[in-house]
Design goal:
Chain lengths: ~90, ~240
């Protein structure tokens, strides 16, 4: 009876303004049969604001497919449009 | 009488046409009928070969259709878990799985969601439910603690017990919400139920994938090492 645990990115969603939503699944199996699957979520933004300063989002620790999608999606135009949108909606 | 066969030659308009060259239907001594099965423990049993894939009209146990275009449905058993799947033939000339009954976990999987009553609006389809965890970061570092979410349709409820890591910058924003919040439905608010921050916190608003801590209309910073217990609900775009 072999219990295994694997983690995989099982859903990658690109939103209109370039945000990339990533779902990571943790799968527990017994002899290859799935017993449990739990999820963790995070969102990667085209640009990230720390204080009043915009900077690039660090994606170096992301899954290779996620990195590829982010790099393909986050053109300078997308980054600029995202900054403009967030700045226009910021309350404080 | 065993091995009965009705030859087509007996009638010019036969009610049963038998072109088979092997046994296809068996009726046992209890009058149970087996189609593709040599025995049946119930009134009717339909047996076919392993028919996992949705892609072909040949992969199924039972087919319903009328003469209208795309009026095709079939029922099949999946080979993966022996689930019962219901497929429909769509207008793009492809079979699509519509519904699946999970044998092992006794669940229903509705591919496109569930609609109630006589409603026809796509927006009113219950098409998503998900639970999971999220990781907050503040001042440039991951926070320590736990965060959970439940998403029902386009509504996300999140909660978190987070402490800012030592060395983090002072900031009034916490990043890491599990889903991007709607950019067209306005901001949502959240509450802080507890904090050990000297300034105190009562809540704030959501934006994109972060939350902003405020008191009244003034940004309220959180410093390294300080803890907040938060919960809130916001809408996504979908």
């Amino acid at each position: 009876m072999a219990i295994t645990k694997e983690t995989l990115v099982d859903k990658i969603e690109v939103l209109e303004m370039g945000q990339v939503q990533v779902r990571t699944a943790t799968v527990i199996k017994e002899d290859g049969t799935e017993l449990n699957r739990s999820f963790h979520r995070h969102v990667l933004l085209p640009r990230k604001k720390l204080g009043d300063t915009w900077g690039d989002t660090d994606i170096s620790g992301e899954d290779a497919r996620v990195q590829a999608i982010c790099n393909a999606t986050w053109t300078n135009e997308v980054k600029s449009a995202y900054e403009t949108l967030i700045d226009s909606q910021e309350i404080l | 009488m065993a091995n009965t066969k009705i030859p087509i030659e007996l009638s010019s308009t036969p009610s049963i046409v038998d072109n088979g060259d092997a046994t296809a239907i068996t009726i046992d001594s209890s009058e149970n009928v087996g189609i593709g099965a040599t025995s049946s423990s119930t009134k009717v049993t339909i047996q076919a070969a392993d028919t996992d894939t949705v892609n072909s009209s040949a992969n199924g146990h039972l087919t319903f259709y009328d003469d209208a275009p795309f009026g095709y449905y079939k029922i099949r058993i999946t080979t993966t878990n022996r689930d019962l799947a219901f497929d429909g033939y769509d207008t793009d000339n492809a079979w699509k799985e519509i519904l699946k009954l999970d044998r092992v976990d006794q669940r229903i999987n509705a591919k496109g969601g569930i609609m109630f009553g006589s409603d026809t609006a796509a927006d009113n389809t219950l098409d998503d439910y998900e639970e999971g965890t999220w990781q907050a970061d503040h001042g440039g570092n991951n926070m320590t603690g736990n965060g959970y979410y439940v998403k029902v349709g386009s509504l996300v409820h999140f909660q978190g017990d987070w402490t800012s890591a030592s060395g983090s910058s002072t900031s009034h924003t916490i990043n890491g919400l599990p889903f991007n919040s709607s950019t067209s439905r306005g901001h949502s608010s959240f509450t802080v139920g507890f904090t050990d921050s000297g300034g105190g916190h009562i809540g704030g608003y959501t934006q994109s994938n972060f939350i902003a801590l405020v008191i009244g209309n003034v940004a309220n910073n959180l410093s390294a090492g300080q803890r907040v217990l938060i919960q809130g609900t916001y809408s996504t775009n979908d």
